[in-house]
Write a structure and sequence with these properties.
The protein is mostly helical. It is 81% helix and 0% strand. It has one domain (7-87). Helix 1 crosses helix 3, helix 2 packs across helix 3 (34-48) and helix 3 runs antiparallel to helix 4.
Length: 94
């Protein structure tokens, strides 16, 4: 996807900053691993574009502070689906 590897950290940083995206979201969009995204935006971006690095760092800190909320919501959703599935399997009886 990227022929110039120096442009990748900047592109990732711009995407994360513009969309408030998580590392996982950016990895999915760009088709690379979460580890690569994290390394690019925490190490390489700092050298390539310090001002963009500051913006990305604040988004990553916000995402890190909120991750326990997203995890709790995912767990709640999982058990709601299991409850629905169980209800359907039992013919609507609970």
């Amino acid at each position: 996807m990227f022929t110039d590897l120096k442009s990748r950290p900047v592109a990732l940083g711009q995407y994360i900053a513009e969309h408030g995206a998580t590392v996982r979201d950016a990895a999915a969009v760009f088709g690379i691993s979460k580890s690569t995204v994290h390394k690019d935006v925490t190490e390489k971006l700092r050298r390539e574009s310090p001002s963009l690095y500051k913006n990305v760092s604040s988004v990553l800190e916000k995402n890190k502070a909120e991750r326990h909320l997203r995890g709790g919501e995912a767990t709640r959703h999982k058990y709601e689906l299991l409850k629905l599935s169980s209800s359907v399997d039992n013919g609507g009886e609970q």
